[in-house]
Design a protein that fits this description.
Number of domains: 2
Protein name: Nudix hydrolase domain-containing protein
InterPro entries: NUDIX_hydrolase-like_dom_sf, NUDIX_hydrolase_dom, Nudix_N
Number of strands: 12
Pfam families: NUDIX, Zn_ribbon_Nudix
Strand content: 25-35%
CATH superfamily of the largest domain: Nucleoside Triphosphate Pyrophosphohydrolase
CATH topology of the largest domain: Nucleoside Triphosphate Pyrophosphohydrolase
Number of helices: 4
Length: 224
């Protein structure tokens, strides 16, 4: 049976459908950073995972998770959100956050991202959450923060910025699963009168959009 025929005749979750839709894995490091030759996926000696191995010089290149840092800015019992001006999730709301740069601490990176996206100069109060998303290779650290002066405006990556009361947060228009989870945990803590530090794993479904409310669940939730 050909692949197209199998796709049309197999039940969506049947084993034949799984084999028919299975893709040959590809490395996200297609060329060796050392010599420029193509890489191939292989399990190096003494390892147990597929790695990008240079077909010429034999160097092994590892794909490590990316660190995302951001701030949950508190002001007058409200939180600061930015509406995204860039893809993915254009036009949706998010906490100011972005990738950590080499040479800065997580707290420094979170403050920088808040200044870039919301033009808000903030003071870090405490770490609030670490969220791991294994499927997309990201780990988030979100800090509670306060504005040094009550001033903010949209940066180059934001359409607008706004302070939201907790009951007014637009959960149907939030950009990412990490932001949804962070804000849910924060609201629960505020209502309980005890703000904690949270850790959890976000399990996203393959192929789900970044803001699909039904595309993920959380696991290993710890709150201290």
């Amino acid at each position: 049976m050909g692949r197209d025929a199998c796709l049309s005749n197999c039940e969506p979750r049947g084993i034949l459908y799984w084999f028919a839709t299975m893709q040959v894995p590809k490395s996200r490091i297609p060329f060796c950073p050392a010599c420029g030759s193509p890489t191939k996926l292989a399990v190096p000696d003494g390892d147990e995972k597929m790695r990008a191995v240079c077909s010429s010089c034999g160097r092994v290149h590892y794909e490590n998770p990316k660190m995302v840092v951001g701030c949950l800015v508190e002001h007058d019992n409200k939180v600061l959100l930015c509406r995204r001006k860039i893809e993915p999730a254009y036009g949706l709301w998010t906490l100011p956050a972005g990738y950590l740069e080499v040479g800065e601490s997580a707290a420094e990176g979170a403050s920088r991202e808040t200044l870039e996206e919301a033009c808000a100069d903030v003071e870090i109060v405490s770490p609030f959450a670490q969220l791991d998303i294994p499927l997309i290779g990201q780990s988030y650290i979100i800090f509670r923060a306060r504005m040094k002066t009550p001033s903010f405006s949209p940066g180059s990556e934001s359409l607008e910025c706004e302070l939201f009361a907790l009951d007014d947060i637009p959960f149907d228009s939030l950009a990412f699963s990490s932001i949804i989870v962070t804000l849910r945990m924060y609201i629960e803590d505020v209502k309980a009168g005890n703000i904690k530090f949270h850790y959890c794993t976000i399990n996203k479904r393959i192929g789900a959009g970044p803001s699909d409310l039904r595309s993920f669940d959380i696991d290993n939730h710890l709150a201290v």
